[in-house]
Amino acid sequence: MKDLTRNTKLWGISAGVALGVAVGGGLYTFIYAKGGSYLTNNPQACANCHIMQDHYDAWIKSSHRSVATCNDCHTPPGLIPKYLTKAENGFFHSLYFTTGNFPDPLRIKERNRAVTESACRKCHTPIVEAIEAHAGNGQTACLQCHGDVGHPLR
After folding, report:
1. Which CATH number is 42-146 given?
2. What is the pTM of this model?
């Protein structure tokens, strides 16, 4: 009976610690780190993290500012794919920001590159089709030549 009581107490303490960590992490994320802003379509949310400020400032000066937000180019269409991508990216952005372990300058992941490439093709279909018909070499990667067009850092 003593072992059952002891195990119950240990489980209770462990559950309390886990709950405290989860609540503390949630409060940190949604209050201090402005986590709720990432659920919006506001590009300023992307600049919550200081390393993104240059990208945000460059987007403000770009021609895409008048026609596209960050989500238009960096999340796939559809509610579920959009928020799954935001959740995945948000997790890794938080991890990298918290640990300070990120490449500088930032590098786009392959999955995110595919999302952005798809967005380019969606908005620029006529010209992409014309280029590929002329080049005759299959799919040309937009980002190969236009990697900084949405937020040029020069």
Report:
1. 1.10.3820.10
2. 0.72
